[in-house]
Amino acid sequence: MRIVPVPCLSDNYAYLVISGTGEAAVVDASEAAPVRDALRREGARLTAIWSTHHHLDHVGGNGELAAGGAIEVVAHVSDRGRVPAQTRAVDTGDTVRVGDVEAKCIHIPGHTLGAVAYYIQAGAERVVFTGDTLFCAGCGRIFEGTPAQMHASLERVAALPGDTRVFCGHEYTANNLRFAVHVEPSNAALVRAQARVAALRARAEPSVGTTLDEERAENPFLRVGSAEIRATLGIAKDADAVTAFAAIRAAKDAF
Ligand code: ZN
Ligand code: FE
After folding, report:
1. Single pTM value for the model
2. CATH code, 187
3. Which ligand sits nearest to residue 9's alpha carbon?
């Protein structure tokens, strides 16, 4: 299996998941042209589109890419009618395939009510596609769900094995880390993360693909128990996790 990030629009990523058979799925077909170019470059044949959620910057290429081919277009069961060209409705526990690669679907509502993560375990390699729910060093805005739903969804993803690599929907990491440092200035992992991301971005390489272990050390939305974050934002020491999460999300919205 190979994972190929495809920069789209201004800061979106589509991803090709290319199986050993040469067949490919695209996660979040933001737009058709860059995905087509990447398929050609990689010598891969598109058989599936896996959409993480209905927002246009994640599904804008679905119609064009699915036209005239036997392409399976996957999205959450509740996104029927909202995801262009959808042929398959999935929920937690369902699996989708491309060639010899199998992905597990995990419903992760919050950013939208029909958000889905796709988790792949292929040999020793584990990856999860999180759309706009878990970002590297951040999380998406809560547009349709509640803070409780979003918090539970992030915890569901974070409960996957620690060496799972995170491929999210946007190149937001540098910005997210600025907020993370603001709320938790003495977290040394953040200094290392900022250096890592600066080096990658200087070479115009994606900053995505962090492990869940790194996310648990760096991502303020997975660190709602941190005494320093709570002190910075005036969150009570004994506040429950969802209350703390909601306060951190609100502070990020206003950052
Ligand atoms: Zn979105
Ligand atoms: Fe988005």
Report:
1. 0.98
2. 3.60.15.10
3. 2
